[in-house]
Amino acid sequence: MLSVEEARDRILADLRPVAVEVVALAEAWGRVSAAPVHARLTQPPADVSAMDGYALRAADGAEGAELDVIGSAPAGHPFAGAVGPGQTVRIFTGSVVPAGADAILLQEDATRIGDRVRVNEAVRAARHIRRAGQDFAAGDAVVPAGRRLSARDIGLAAAANHPWLVAHRRPRVAVLATGDEIALPGEPIPPGGIVSSNSHALAALIRAAGGTPLVLPVAADDPAAIGAAADAVAGVDLLVTTGGASVGDHDLVISALSARGLNVDFWQIAMRPGKPLVFGWLGSPGAGVPMLGLPGNPVSALVCSVLFLLPALARLSGLPPAPPPVTEAVLGAAVPANDLRADHLRATLHEDPEGRLVATPFPVQDSAMLRRLALADGLVLRAPHAPALPAGAAVRVIRLDRLGV
Amino acid sequence: MLSVEEARDRILADLRPVAVEVVALAEAWGRVSAAPVHARLTQPPADVSAMDGYALRAADGAEGAELDVIGSAPAGHPFAGAVGPGQTVRIFTGSVVPAGADAILLQEDATRIGDRVRVNEAVRAARHIRRAGQDFAAGDAVVPAGRRLSARDIGLAAAANHPWLVAHRRPRVAVLATGDEIALPGEPIPPGGIVSSNSHALAALIRAAGGTPLVLPVAADDPAAIGAAADAVAGVDLLVTTGGASVGDHDLVISALSARGLNVDFWQIAMRPGKPLVFGWLGSPGAGVPMLGLPGNPVSALVCSVLFLLPALARLSGLPPAPPPVTEAVLGAAVPANDLRADHLRATLHEDPEGRLVATPFPVQDSAMLRRLALADGLVLRAPHAPALPAGAAVRVIRLDRLGV
Q1: Whose CA is closest to B331, among B268, B393, B379?
Q2: Among all residues of chain A, which has the CA nearest to that of B78?
Q3: Per-residue model confidence (pLDDT) at position A132
Q4: Number of independent structural domains in chain A
Q5: Residue B222: pLDDT band by 50, 70, 90 thresholds?
Q6: In a domain, B322, yes or no
Q7: How large is the average pLDDT for residues A352-373?
Q8: Same domain, yes or no, for B191 and B280?
Q9: Cβ pairs bridging A and B (under 8 Å)
Q10: Residue A342 domain-assigned?
Q11: Whether residue A224 is found in the same domain as residue A302
Q12: What's the Cα-to-Cα distance from A65 to each of A62, A110, A123, rounded to whole Å?
C-alpha cells in the first residue's frame, strides 16, 4: 500500500498550472497572479504631509514665531507657488509639501489669527513629512507572481495603477459520479438506491478552492456510460470520478476509461477513511487530462478530496505543490493506538481558556456517517502505527472549517 | 473616544440579516442557511452491508458451514426474495441486506465453490450491518439555520434529498470613494493626486465575505456629487464610503449626506490605524440603509474594514453578531507599551519548530505603507495601555491570510 504522502507526490508530480488570462482588477480576488505586478508610479508621488497643519521652512518654526499664510493646499490641489522666508501654506494629510517648505507645523500646535499663524511648539525639519516613494517606487514589484490575491493585494495593485492583472485561469474540473444505485436530489430514487451527495459536495469543494466545477450526468455502472465521460473532458483541466461500486470499487471506471485512452495507476493507500484511489491521464502524462478517481463512499470521497484534490486544485491554480495546511492542537479525549493505515479522525474543535485549540474526536468514526463529518470542524491526523495518546497530547489537525469544505 | 468594541456593538445593534431566497443546491456554498434542512428520507434507507461478502442467517454461519448462493445483490439492485435456512446471497458494500438475513460473511472469510460458499470464520449477528437511519432519519434537522454552508453541508443536504435550499441573499454593498485627488487605475491622475486603491480593495473584501460589491463612481469633494450617492442606494443593504479629505476627514461626507436624510453618529475611536469613523442610517435606524464611513487612508480603511465591515457583512449575511476571529500567537519581537489607543500591529506569521504561531510586527508601523500591509499575515491586537511585552509573550492576532483580505 502507498502512503498518503507518496500518493500526493505522485499526483502533483506532473500537474502544471493552467494557462493565464487578463482579468479586470475587480475580478482578480482569489486568483493566483501569473506575473509580478510592477508599480507604474511612485507612492507617495512627491513629499506629502502626514498631518493637518502648516508647511513652512524649518528655520522659521521656532516657538513664538509668526508667519504669513500665503495659501492653502488641500489634498489634490497642490500649492503652485513656493514658500519663502516668513511664509507658510495651509496643508492637509496627503497634501504635497510646497516648494521651499521642509517642515510641518501641526494644526494643534498653531494659533491662526486672520492671515497669520503663530507657532506654539517648535517644528523639526522633515518631521511629519512622508518622503516620495516611501511606500513604493515606480518599477518595484509590489505583488509577486504565484500569489493567491488578497483584498490587500488588489488594493496595492490599484495603488500601483493597474486596471488589469495577469492571473491563472480558474481550473475547470469535471465531476462524474457513477453507480446504478444513485440519483440526483429530487429525482426518482431507484429501489435500494441513495441520493448522490458526492457530485454537489465536490462541486462546492472545487468552488471553495477557486475552481469551476462542471457536474456531468450520473453514469450508470455501464462501460459505455462511463466511457462517454472521455468525450466530455475537452477543455477540462481535471476529471474527478467517484465510485464504480463493484468488487474492487473502481474496476468499472478503470476498464471503461482505459478503453478510451486512460493511462492509469490504481493504488491501495494506507489510509482511513478511503483506501482505493485511481490516478491517471486521459492521454499522455503531463499533456492529456489528469483523472482522479475517488471512492464512492461520501465520507471517504470528501476526506480523500481534502488530502488529494485540494492540493491538485491549488497546483492547477498556480500555487507551488504543497500538502493541505495543518494546525497544532491538543486532544480533548484519549485516542487508541493506530494500525498500519493513516487515520483522519473527525473531530470538533474549540479554544480552551488558555487559548489552545482542543480537538475532540467523535468516539465512533464510521465512514458511513456523513452527518457526523458535516458536524466536524477538523481531521486529526494519525500516522500509521502512531501510539495511543492521552487527552492533552499534541496532535496535528486539518481545519475543515477554514477550507470552506 | 469610543472603544473598538463599543463602536462595533453600536454598528451591529440595529443590523438585521438580509432577506432570503431559494437557491439551487449547487449555488448555496458559502451562503448562510435561513431555515433548517430537514431530511426527506432515512439514510441508510434500509439495513445495508458495510462490507463485500455474503448475507446469511447468523444461525447458519458457524465455521465450516456450507451454504447455497441463491442470488446476488449489487448496490442499487436489491435481492427480491428472502434468505432461508442454509442459503446466502452475494452482497456488496451499500447493498440492502435481504429479508431473512441478519449477518454478513466477509468475502475474505469465505471460499466460493460454484454455487456454494464455505464459512472460514464464524459470523456474528448484526456485525458489518449498517442499520437503517444510522446516519439520519427522515425529519431530522441535518443542517441548522444560520450556518455558513460548507461543501460537507451541501453534500449532507443532497443526501437528505434537497435540490434547493433557502438561504440569505448576498448582501449588496455600495462602495463610494470620495476625494478630488483620486483617480481609478488607468485613468488620468490629477496634479498631486493618487490612484484610488480603496474602492477595489473594499470590493474584494466584500466579495471575500460573501457579499456583492457595487463600486460607485468616485465622488469629488463636492456636496452635490457626494449627495448623489443617496440616490444610488435603492436596493442596497449597506453603503460604505471612504475619505472626504478635509479637516475632520468626514465633514464633507457627513454634511452632504445629512442633507439627504442621513441620521449620523460620528465617532472618534480609540484605535490606530484609523480613528474617525462614521456610522448612520439613510432613513430611520433599523429600517433605512446603513452607512459606514471609513477613513480615506488605505491602510486605515482596510484595518477598519476588518474590525467593523467584516462583522457587519457577516451579520447582514445571516450570522449572529460577533467580532472578527482571533488566534493565539507568541511575539517574535518585543513591543513597547501602548498608549490610550488600541493598536493593530501589522505582523508576519510563521510556525516555529514546536508548532506555535509566531507573530513578528514590522518595526515601522506607518499607516501610509500599503505595501507593508499587503505583506502582513496578521494584525497583532494591542489593547489601550497594554504594557511592553518581550519576544515570546502571548498575544492575540487577527489572521488576515485566513480572511481572504
Answers
A1: B393
A2: A192
A3: 94
A4: 4
A5: confident
A6: no
A7: 91
A8: yes
A9: 309
A10: yes
A11: yes
A12: 6, 10, 11
Q: Are residues B11 and B25 in the same domain?
A: no
Question: A109 near A103, Cβ under 8 Å?
Answer: no
Which of B75, B110, B130 marks a domain boundary? B130
Q: pLDDT class for A245, splitting at 50, 70, 90? A: very low
Which residue shows C-alpha cell 464510521?
A366
Question: Which single residue is written with the C-alpha cell 486605515?
Answer: B300
Across the interface, do B158 and A74 touch by the CB < 8 Å criterion?
no
pLDDT for position A354: 81
Could you read off the pLDDT of B264-283 as tens digits, one per residue?
887 889 999 988 889 999 99
A52 and A30 within one domain:
no
Q: Are residues B52 and B153 in the same domain?
A: no
Q: Are residues B107 and B162 in the same domain?
A: no
CB nearest to A195's CB, from B159, B201, B298: B159
CA–CA distance, A393 with A151 (Å, rounded to integer): 37
Asked whether residue A89 is assigned to any structural domain, the reply reads yes
Q: What is the CATH number of the domain that holds B233?
A: 3.40.980.10
From A317, A336, A353, give the residue that closes a domain: A317
By CB neighbour count within 10 A (0-12 exposed, 13-18 middle, 19+ buried), where does B123 fall? buried
> How high is the pLDDT of residue B375?
94
Q: Are residues B116 and B142 in the same domain?
A: no
Cα(B281)–Cα(B294) distance, integer angstroms: 15
Q: What is residue A173's predicted lDDT score, i.e. its pLDDT?
A: 98
| C-alpha to C-alpha distance for B201 and A29, rounded to whole angstroms | 9
Across B74-85, average pLDDT? 90
Q: Which amino acid does the sequence have at A325?
A: P
pLDDT tens digits, B3-37: 999 999 999 999 999 999 999 998 999 999 999 99
Residues A210, A307 share a domain: yes
**CATH code, domain carrying B119:** 2.170.190.11
CATH code, domain with A146: 3.90.105.10
pLDDT greater than 80 at residue A76: no
Q: Which three cell numbers stand for residue B323?
A: 467580532
C-alpha cell at A226: 462511463
A379: CATH: 2.40.340.10
For B200, which of A155, A195, A373 is closest by C-beta distance? A155
Mutate to test the interface with A, among B22, B23, B29 (most CBs of A within 10 A): B29
pLDDT, mean over chain A: 93
CA dihedral B386, B388, B391, B397 (to 10 degrees): 20
Task: Report the chain B residue with the minimal C-alpha distance to residue A204.
Answer: B151
**Minimum-distance CB partner of A204 among B154, B302, B405:** B154
Look up the domain containing A231 and give its range: 4-18+170-317
User: Is B80 inside any structural domain?
Assistant: yes
pTM above 0.90, yes or no: yes
Give pLDDT tens digits for A167-221.
Answer: 999 999 999 998 888 899 999 998 878 899 999 999 999 999 999 999 999 998 8
